[in-house]
Design brief:
By secondary structure, this protein is α/β, with parallel strands linked by helices. The strands form three sheets. Strands 6-7-14-13-9-8-12 form a seven-stranded mixed β-sheet, with helices on both faces. It has a five-stranded parallel β-sheet with strand order 2-1-3-4-5.
Length: 665
């Protein structure tokens, strides 16, 4: 996606080519400076992967919302990036008629309908300004890309929308079409036409059939096939499988407590557009909010996002110590007290060694800012862990098979735990336990009500399970796969004591002692590598055998010593999926839409090594990380891209369940 956006910022020319063209002209002219105008949706697309400095590096001096009042900037070209909707067509043509800019490079996030293109032509012709329109492009970029292998269509509250009983068939059809359009854009960006599989009977099947028809129509009828560069034998052999799933398949994964750095941040602070906002309290007790941008090029983030939090804290300490050693060396050579004074040294009178040190100052300054950011985030996470006993909750969820009604009731009645966390714990216990007695459920629900907990989400889950006839083996997660499974529950009692002592260490960055000793026992909280239901199904779709920890059966098999039930559960579920191949009509080697023929073709070619997973109704970083862990430990290593209609944390998902219960008669 970044490459496509950068190309758009270079007026839809290859950045290197445009630089070479400018140098071949032997002119001393500066690069073409532009203004960027976008609507709110496309602003979110850009801001997720590019920052202000990135825009400036690519020749954008000013960026503004299309809806805002804007003054003319003559003699400057303007790049427009917006959704192809009537309101945006009117705004763009009005800007052109007002002669706000010199030339207009118009880019739409998805395909511009012919009716709107004709309206655009009529308006610019009527105002006599059509000659100022330099380009009109369909970019097919109407999705967000917070991680290299993760995307979101940015449709908020999709689970609530789909399950809303007041939703009309027309509105549902329009939503399905929007999802299909977004997925089409993702596939075009990836330059691939996958095979498609989906469970029957829900939104995933509707999306699968419409996406299959859209892809087939484009491949067969389009004058300019945008997938043409993949039409070769080598590319076809690498075709991924697109696994479309409904959120109803696994509600538990949306409510799990995690132990990995990235998932913890999203759970507690809700990562939005790759930005994290945390509340910090100074020594005088005054609270203030601080926003941090997560840069996709941040090496520390790349290396630590999926690690258990205690390991990340130690790595922050290691990075801090390494930085201090380099900073001390520079200040020693310069004879100054701090890095701030290094920039004031006289370069001409300095030695070559010192000059080399001074040139590293910008890089060191950036590193310090990055370390400070992660230090502040980690410190805030530690406070939340202590306040909400998240380590204890995580360990209980990791060993749900061993939990009893008594232990769950003890947690519910614990005044130190938060109501939302208690509700999440009980929901996971209920989904994971097979054969739990109704009177036990009612007793736990009564205990939640007694402490003032809103159990509307729980009531809606009861309704949904009844409607869908969901079995516990499908609806429950394989807990502990959130990236930090607890290996030994005996350490839960002393974890918070260790955490309380690390907070000051992180905040100072001046203590020469190592954090390794503090976390010597916390390191027992290691990933247990159990697979979530989505991961087990994806493994089956890629031609493998479902892992023994999948589909929640891992919880039961952990106690019984068995593991085959989860494998067969995933296999049985996948056998009932619909299987589509958009290239089938062109290739002619598969009759109709015969799923058995398609599976036979996959089996003959061997297990596919690439997959695109898309969950309709919301996803999260726990599921994403579980898929990435599966891909990394596979031999040969697999490549998986994870996407969803929106990225939701547990609080947001509970809010959707609450509204659904309140609005369902």
């Amino acid at each position: 996606m970044v490459a496509s956006l950068v190309r758009m910022l270079h007026l839809n020319a290859d950045p290197q080519s445009s630089i070479a063209d400018a140098s071949n002209q032997n002119t001393a002219e500066a690069p073409i400076w532009k203004v960027l105008i976008f609507d709110s949706f496309c602003r979110d697309i850009v801001s997720t992967v590019l920052r202000v400095n990135d825009l400036r590096d690519n020749g954008v001096t000013v960026h503004m919302l299309m809806e805002a009042q804007r003054s003319p900037i003559p003699d400057v070209p303007a790049i427009y990036f917006a959704r192809p909707i009537p309101e945006n067509i009117k705004r763009i043509t009005d800007d052109i008629a007002r002669d706000l800019y010199e030339l207009y490079y118009v880019n739409f996030s998805s395909s511009l309908p012919r009716t709107l293109l004709e309206e655009f032509a009529i308006q610019t012709t009527a105002s006599g300004t059509s000659h100022q329109v330099a380009q009109i492009y369909d970019q097919y970029l109407d999705f967000l890309c917070p991680e290299e292998n993760m995307f979101s269509l940015h449709f908020t509250n999709t689970f609530e929308t789909i399950h809303n009983p007041a939703m009309s068939d027309t509105a549902m059809s329009a939503l399905i079409d929007k999802i299909v359009s977004g997925l089409f854009s993702v596939l075009l960006t990836l330059k691939t036409v996958p095979t498609i599989c989906a469970p029957r009977g829900n939104a995933a099947e509707m999306v699968a059939t419409r996406l299959d028809a859209k892809l087939r129509e484009h491949i067969m009828n389009a004058k300019h096939n945008l997938f043409a560069e993949t039409d070769n034998v080598a590319a076809q052999s690498r075709r991924p499988v697109l696994v479309l799933l409904d959120r109803d398949l696994d509600l538990g994964s949306m409510l799990m407590h995690s132990w990995t750095y990235q998932a913890l941040i999203h759970d507690l602070y809700d990562i939005q557009l790759n930005q994290v906002s945390i509340t910090q309290t100074n020594d005088s007790g005054q609270a203030s909010k601080k926003a941090y941008d997560i840069n996709t090029n941040d090496t520390f983030w790349k290396n630590n996002a999926m690690l258990p939090f205690p390991e990340v804290a130690i790595n922050i300490d290691d990075a801090s110590n390494a930085f201090k050693r380099e900073a001390d060396e520079i200040t020693r050579m310069g004879g100054v007290q701090s890095l701030d004074e290094v920039g004031n040294l006289n370069m001409e009178s300095s030695t070559k060694q010192l000059q080399r040190a001074i040139t590293t100052l910008p890089e060191l300054t950036a590193r310090k800012a990055n370390i400070d950011m992660h230090m502040n985030i980690a410190t805030s996470l530690l406070d939340k862990i202590k306040d909400r006993q998240l380590d204890v909750l995580f360990q209980m969820e990791d060993n749900l098979a061993r939990q009893t009604k008594a232990s769950i009731l003890e947690a519910i009645n614990d005044p130190e735990k938060k109501q939302e966390d208690k509700l999440r714990l009980f929901v996971l216990y209920m989904l994971a336990k097979q054969g739990i007695r109704q009177e036990d459920i009612e007793e736990c629900e009564s205990a939640l009500k007694a402490i003032g907990c809103n159990i509307s989400p729980l009531e809606y889950i009861h309704r949904l399970r009844s409607l869908n006839q969901m079995s516990a083996s499908i609806a429950s997660p394989a807990l502990g796969s959130s990236g930090g499974g607890a290996g030994n529950a005996s350490h839960s009692g002393d974890l918070l004591g260790k955490f309380s002592s690390i907070s000051n260490r992180l905040a100072g960055l001046t203590d020469n002692s190592s954090l390794g000793s503090i976390f010597s026992n916390v390191r027992n909280l290691l990933p247990s590598h159990k697979q979530l239901p989505v991961t087990s199904i994806v493994e089956s779709a890629m031609g493998g055998r479902a892992h023994g920890g999948g589909l929640g059966a891992g919880l039961r098999s952990a106690a019984t010593g068995g593991g085959s039930s989860s494998s067969s559960a995933a296999a049985r579920m996948f056998e009932d999926f619909i299987h589509l191949d958009p290239k089938q009509a062109r290739r002619g080697n598969l009759a109709g839409s015969n799923a058995n023929a398609l599976r036979g073709s996959l089996a003959s070619d061997g297990a596919t090594q690439e997959a695109i997973v898309f969950v309709i109704g919301g996803g999260n970083y726990i599921e994403y990380q579980n898929l990435m862990e599966f891909a990394q430990r596979s031999t040969p290593r697999k490549h998986i891209v994870y996407g969803s209609t929106d990225i939701v944390n547990a609080s947001g998902f509970l809010a959707q369940l609450t509204r659904l219960n309140d609005n369902t008669p």
